[in-house]
Write a structure and sequence with these properties.
This is Reverse transcriptase domain-containing protein. The protein is mainly alpha-helical. It has 2 domains: 107 residues, no CATH class; 65 residues, no CATH class. Helices cover 51% and strands 4% of the residues. It contains 9 helices and 2 strands. A two-stranded antiparallel ribbon has the order 1-2. Strand 1 and strand 2 form a beta hairpin. It is globular, with a radius of gyration of 19 Å. The two termini are 30 Å apart. The relative contact order is 0.11. The C terminus is likely disordered.
Length: 201
Amino acid sequence: MYVVKCFKYLGSFLTDDGRCTCEIKSRIAMAKAAFSKKKNLFTSKLDLNLRKKLVKCYIWSIALYGAETWTLRAVDQKHLESFEMWCWRRMEKISWTDYVRNEEVLIRVSEQRNILHEIRKRKANWIGHVLRRNCLLKEAIEGKIDGRIEVTRRRGRRRKKMLDDLGDRRGYCHLKEKALDRIKWRNCFERDCGPVVLTDY
């Protein structure tokens, strides 16, 4: 029996370990290629705010396609943050040989590190939509699908799950109850812009 370790389905990479690192690297590579094609536009003398909006609309949309379903480990978050800084450095024509710190680059473009918060908001919007409905996807998330699966306990810490990124330590039931109120759910994640904690599971 031949086991495939990685294959592409509907534009996304699926791996046998169930992790998203391969998919994230692929998306970042596609976004960088798209940036290079329109480099003259992003590095032109247009207004800075306009160029930032173009980058977030055109480049980030490619990089974050399907990000609602990603389970981010520490290494994945570092890749995404590196990509974010790569965009701002290329936009401002700052070479790595110029020895300009990331903090200085962010000051020049009047930005903060936002890409991880953007992923978290997208994930919250999608998960909230799923939790408010009675559908097969909701049953899959809750583990109510019947079947015979042999579960053996792995050594070490528990693998990080998709819902863990939403950071509700009171459990799934509280998360589900909070999602029923659409307005409160959205406001909760709109104003939650604290530092993202890097965890590796």
